[in-house]
Amino acid sequence: MSTAENRALRVVIADDDAFTLSLVRGGLEAQGYAVTATTSVEQALEAVRDTDPHAVISDLNFGTAENGADLLRFVADEFPWVGLVVLTSHRSPELAVPDPQRIPRGAVYLVKSQLGRIDELADAVQRAISGAPDDHADLFDEPHDDGVPSVTAAQAEVLRMLAAGASTRALAEARGTTTRAVETMLHRLFVALGLDTSENANPRVAAVTMWQRGGIRVR
After folding, report:
1. How far apart are CA 86 and CA 107, in angstroms?
2. Each residue of 177-195: pLDDT tens digit?
């Protein structure tokens, strides 16, 4: 689609990372899209109501109770004609949100680290608007021998809580188990990630860093 044709298309972007927001907004505006940039679920919902966009591009984790899955589900339910694109750091949605099943099945799923050019995002927007099939569950059927460590869904939940600053005691209370059981679970998580668990290491920090960089998938 040409820049002139893109000019008529309105897009709402939701991401709490200022750099990503600026990069995506600038890239799409250069291609002629009318872009509204927002930094929270609340702002994005307001923008959707105000601008009646053709597509919404959303991150998943905003560091708040509400997340991108909630935003996309609301848009899918209330504005089913709007195309939906997920743009996240995480290869598996379970690593970003506790309720990945809320992500509408028709949403186009993109991983930031695998996005080479803005044209790829523009293409995803076009596919989302046109309703082209894009079952994001299929994204994770790729081979697991590419050096990217994988964790279970339960370990992904623990990892998200670690990233939010949860202590061992808090993890135990949340999971209804003992601190000793959580310590064992954490050790297995760190081993699965290939981290140093020796006495002088800090695998918690290393695990959260891997999570932030999107270097993990859920098996």
Report:
1. 7
2. 899 999 999 999 999 999 9
